[in-house]
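Feature request, filed as a ticket because there's no other form

It would be nice if the structure record came with a short human-readable summary line next to the tokens. Right now we just get the raw output. Example of a typical job, pasted below so the devs can see what we mean:
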Amino acid sequence: MFARFRRLTLAGELLVLQLAIIVVVVAAVGALSLAQSEATFDRVEGRRVTALAEQMAWNPLVRSRLGKPAPGEVLAPLVHSTQAQSGVTSVTVADAGGRTVASTDPTLIGTPLPLGDSDAAEGRGWSGHIEIDGAHELAARAPVLGETAADRGRQLGTVMIGVAAPTVWERLAGASSYLVLYLGIAVVLGVLGSWLLARRIKRQTLGMEPREITGLAEHREAMLYGIAEGVIALDPALRVTLVNEVGRRLLDLPERCVGMSLTELGIGDRLYDVLAGKREDPGAAARDAGDEIAIRGGRVLVMNRMTVVKDGRSLGSVTTLRDRTELARLERELGSFRSTTELLRAQAHEFANQLHIISGLTQMDEPDEVLRYIRVLSGHRKSLDLQVTSRIDDTAVAALVMAKSSLAAERKVRLRLSERTALPRLEPGDSADVATVTGNLVDNAIDAAAGTVGAGGGGGGGAVEAWVEVELRHDASGVEIVVRDSGPGVAPGLAHEVFARGFTTKAARGGERGIGLALTQLVCTRRGGEVAVANTSDGAVFTAHMPVGHLAHETADTADTAETEETEETEETAETMETVR
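Raw output as currently delivered:
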């Protein structure tokens, strides 16, 4: 039966519960009505039988005959007439010894009058319920006092008058018509109320039954807390309605964040725009987009936002979050290998072109031109190597700058080193971070400067030269990296958010390289440094500052050895060139 009740619909369950409540209420009202009816009967009838008993006790005939022989023969007519006139159930008269001398019930004559807990024997009246031959009566007793001078004040006997108390069924029978009416009205109102309530709940629960809602909630909890991605749901007012444990951890939210708005949670800038679905231009409507990058609490987060719409009404949005910090760390570690690969590719392309020229000059039988061309190439390479190695003692950073120089040349951008550059050898961990920041900023600058290649005035004006300048300085507070470019600069509206948004200075936004600026800020902030961007008349200037550890100074002997090897290599190259000549 319980299983059948569980299979009822929501409306059926509400109806059954309403009817059960109605039955309980009607039963309680009935019990209260019976108790009130009994109290009213005791009050009204008690007063009446008490008045009748006192009236009969003061009757001169009763007072004169009690105490004399055979009083019942004289009092019997009075007893029966009193019963007939008042409509009471019983009238009994007892003498001073408590023995019944006259009664409407002949079987009681000669028997003791039941006094119960009354104190009528002491000359006072009493009223209450008694049992006479199994009949329940409301009775009143009154003492009969003497009227003569000799008997004055002496109790001659007792008069008791009782009226039968109605049973429970008799009271219910008297009130049955009202109870049926009340029950009928209550049932109709209960059914109507249950139906209206069921409709309202159905509409609010999208037509689902309670067991379906329970199953949906269980499945939702299992899904949200069983996936590795973070999930956060917002209502149209940007208040958090749901967030799983992963999402709360990634966004660094308090445990009781549900119901709080993004502003109350301290979420702003780029992260706020992504969660709210705002466009880049102010005043634009919310939108859905693909994967977007934001930084929160030192983590690089990839976020995807979807708007939830039901029956044309917006219910809010759901955003999934993925932690890309570990991947960013791996990208940073692979940066040096990628730079080496790109350097080899660029140099292979450059050497191929140079070998083609040498081969052509050889076929043309021009040995002098071949030698002159080799001398020019060797001088240019040595000049670049000496320029970099003389100012940058850290081999990893120096190799990175040389690799970026080849890549820039391939894209027709001149990469130059500032004359103020001076960077000593760093610890391996510091060197890796400095190389990461430098590489990302240089890549971004090359992309910006390459967009101006070929642009120039008409007529006789030449093309605008594209360049990128790198400046690396070290002082007691750390390493400062300054990268300038001849590109179009950074839009003023994005200057404060370009790192959090992961943009490049290229016109095309949202590319894969955009993560480089976000990584740059992440590396700097983790070391307690900072990175900023500004516009000049020539283009954009990116400035990064990072505290570093102790320097790995080379010994004087090592430096002398390196200088000796460099001199010997120069002399050997000169001898080789002379032999070719």
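Something like this underneath would help us a lot:
The mean pLDDT is 76.
The longest helix spans residues 10-57.
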